């Protein structure tokens, strides 16, 4: 690449990263087998803490298996990239502030190495947001580039994919040659489909941020009042307000589990009806799929849980029965 083209590409990279950092989206990245330079670009431009929640490179086979929670049929495949993006998205939900848009990024590649490869030099990258799943399949011309150059190309395309997921406009720059092959797919989800995925356990929770209240940027803890809220009433609202004033710095959230311990799960229409109450009241509500408090604690680490008198009485009764 000529010096002029290198300067232009460096300017493009910096411009894209700055635009990503200025977007409200927060990102978790899981990368294996390539696109390593993208992490350096994201971290080297000021504002990375606005964007990057976590980045993991599961390079060894065991690390990869532990990340996925299973042995994949193929390490480098479209399905694996999509699964990595979904895992990253769910991780991002847990790490981000309530209501902040989250992007999960998955990348798996089989690029040039120190030993000749019989198969294609290829990679798959996927991004997942609340309402969209995007995946790209790229096959590079074999022998055209060094490993470093293939990593550069995959990093550039990954950066572009993150920008698209963050709804950031980027200048049109060609990263591939005519002999390279690329295929892109995008799936959009309606609110009903998101809630169905939640009920099925594919995504861990969904936040509805109807609250207009602002909190200090240092607040990371959630102050959560869980319940069925059928219906939501003034007592619930007052209880969370008092708890928030006692606890201090934190994000007050109501939480409803779509899955019940001893009842059938809520339907999509039931969830939407209950959410409307919080929209009318201007309050933030989280829809999860965990009915038990010990599971909620895993889902919302570091949070403070507010419980009402009925729940206190139930917990005391259980404790007394265990002592008898």
From TrEMBL:
InterPro entries: CinA-like_C (IPR036653), Cyt_trans-like (IPR004821), Rossmann-like_a/b/a_fold (IPR014729)
GO cellular component: cytoplasm; nucleus
Keywords, comma-separated and alphabetical: Nucleotidyltransferase, Transferase
Keyword Flavoprotein: no
GO MF terms, alphabetically ordered: ATP hydrolysis activity; nicotinamide-nucleotide adenylyltransferase activity
Membrane-spanning segments: none
SUPFAM superfamilies per record: Nucleotidylyl transferase
Designated name of the protein: NICOTINAMIDE MONONUCLEOTIDE ADENYLYLTRANSFERASE
UniProt source species: Salix koriyanagi
Lineage of the organism: Eukaryota, Viridiplantae, Streptophyta, Embryophyta, Tracheophyta
